[in-house]
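Supplementary Methods, section 5.1.

A reviewer requested that the exact input to the structure prediction be made available. We therefore reproduce it here, unchanged from the version used in the analyses.
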Amino acid sequence: AHEQGFVRDEGLTVQLVTFTGSRVTIQALVAREVGAAAIAAPAVANAVLAGADAVMIAGFDNFLPYYLAVRGIKSLSELKGKVIGIAAIGGTTDFLIRLLLPRIGLDPARDVTLLQLGGEGQRVAALESGGVQATPLSVLFMSVAQRRFGAVPLFDFSTLQIPYQHTGLATTRAQLRDQRPTLQRLMRAVVRGIHVYKTNPGWSEGVAMKYLKLEDRELARMAVVYHGTRTLRAPYVNLPGVKTVLDELARTNPRARTVKPEDLADQSLVREIEAEGLIRRLYGG
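The structure derived from this sequence is encoded token-by-token as follows.
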């Protein structure tokens, strides 16, 4: 949306800021250091459960777009006693591990060591050096790790086939109230950006190479195809996917049982944009 000039077309001036890990991102959002942030549901849920003001206003991916990358491990049972790299406690990668391990009879608190390492680049480096034996990686970084040192995708989290709200757009309810016209214009630009992402892969590959600092266009193409075919035209927050997050968090935080998915989402901006016909016009429907 920013690269295509859609944000500017909406009369907005936006500064893009990159954070490493969802914990830092949600802290900046709650502190109103940023007006909106691309972030996954677990971080928003944890913030709300801690009493912070955060809400998802759009959902981009409603599945689990990660692999469990390993080195020197041939089966999931061999994870017992191993060190697993995650970005940060309370974030998506932490959530994924806590989702998977009980399903294979392992206790995340007793049977493995979770090591907070930050972004995917750091986790790939730790896997390569032997500092960790496993870590969740996106399709892009899984490919990087495979090519660089023969990492193996031991488990595809998307095969769990459970509803899940991964990356979306979040803000605070205070900003949604006080800056609603601005956020509505931003959402309109985002919807137009999604259209380009889905229909102009060549352009999207170039943008991916720029922001992900890739030199290999094939890797960028792989990421664009993987996500572009799955990203929703109308980016509503996936409420069953948010419920999945809350149900999993309730294992260790009973307060999660008192929160409804609707408490973490506000669909009104996307609903208004769809009602005005923008999405239909973009896709010729």
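The chain has 13 helices and eight strands. These observations are discussed further in the main text.
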